[in-house]
Amino acid sequence: MRWDNLTGGPTGPAALFGADAVVTRTIDTPEFRGITFHEVRARSIVNRVPGASRMPFEWTVNPYRGCSHACVYCFARKTHSYLDLDTGIGFDSQIVVKTNAPELLRRELTSPRWTGAHIAMGTNVDCYQRAEGRYRLMPGIIEALRDRANPFSILTKGTLILRDLPLLREAAEVTEVGISVSVGFTDTGLWRTVEPGTPSPAARLAAVRTLTDAGIECGVLMAPVIPFLGDSPEQLRATVRAVAEAGATSATPLVLHLRPGAREWFMAWLGAHHPHLVPRYERMYAGGSYAPTWYQRRITRQVHELAAEFGIGPSRRGAARAVVTPERPQDPAPAGATQLSLL
Parallel, antiparallel, or unpaired: how do β-strands 94-98 and 64-65 relate? Predict the structure, then answer.
């Protein structure tokens, strides 16, 4: 593997970490079998979202690259190619860990250039994936944000977030904290094949209930709604009903999008598991990474109607992340790299 793309050089761009700072570990325990960790000392941790992004925030923090959730549709797979790592199995099993993320964030938040803007987490890969159980980076990250009363949000499929519930409650007392859990469907058969490394949808919804019972408002991002596999009226109804019963404040649908890197991996999976759907997907996504607008609007309308029926509202833009009015500071980012956005 080459780390050149992120380690810079005499005439290259500023390095995100030094090649001599990479430590590779293979841990032969059941929960990490088959996973290799590349421990790095990052040089920046607060990243700016591209200006063309649709997201209602501008800054992100991502302590990991790669994700053992192994979601076959994950849009972030392409980022592994920047390290000359495989975007398929490599993305699922070669995890880059920014071991100094908490201390680096604390330092960047105290920079005179930092204006206290909202910071979103979980927008690239899940910060509560299995690696977090070993490296415990999130407690230090939340503490740094709490101590500066800096607003933040977390999107996750990981039930490990409940470990940090006391810290989240402390942070919520001094700043805006938005939590959103991703549950695109409740079909267990579909879950086992497309999200094999994640907690079950039922476990995630139980986490939503625990968070809301503790006074932390929690929305659900119904992502992704998978065409022809998870989008029937019956499936949508079952999911929204379960979301409502979990006490979520909102249900916000997001139709599957297939960017380069994810597209190839997902289509290979589709060909192996549902070959009859390959032609339908080729037609639906012939125009690019996104499903046709008419289809997205239909799914959104159906979910919003179901949400109203079950007594929860669709969130306004940014509500699940507690983003009130995203501001765009004029000062440059604190030496951060541009970050891929969720949408």
Answer: antiparallel
The answer to whether 181 touches 207, Cβ cutoff 8 Å, is: yes
pLDDT band, residue 54 (cuts 50/70/90): low
Evaluate the omega torsion of the peptide bond into residue 224 and state whether it is cis, within 30 degrees of 0: yes
Q: Report the alpha-carbon angle 60-240-273, nearest 5.
A: 80
Show Cβ contacts of residue 318 under 8 Å, excluding neighbours closer than 6 positions.
Answer: 56, 57, 324, 326
Distances (CA, A) of 307 to 37, 205, 241: 41, 16, 8
3-state secondary structure 267-294: HHHHHHHCHHHHHHHHHHCCCCCECCHH
* Helix 165-172 with 138-147: angle, nearest 10 deg: 10
Other residues' Cβ atoms within 10 Å of the Cβ of residue 247: 17
- Would you say the pTM of this structure is higher than 0.70? yes
Number of helical (H) and strand (E) elements in the chain, helices listed first: 12, 11
DSSP state of 250: B
Can you list the alpha helix ranges (DSSP code H) found in 97-200?
Answer: 101-109, 131-135, 138-147, 165-172, 188-194
**DSSP-derived secondary structure letter, 313:** B
pLDDT at position 21 is: 62
* Whole-number pLDDT of residue 33: 82
Secondary element (H or E) of residue 108: helix 101-109
What's the CA gap between 96 and 155, in Å, rounded? 19
- Please list, in sequence order, all residues whose beta carbon lies within 8 angstroms of the beta carbon of residue 116, skipping any fewer than 6 positions away: 148, 149, 150, 151
Cα–Cα nearest to 66, from 39, 94, 40: 94
CA distance 160 to 229: 28
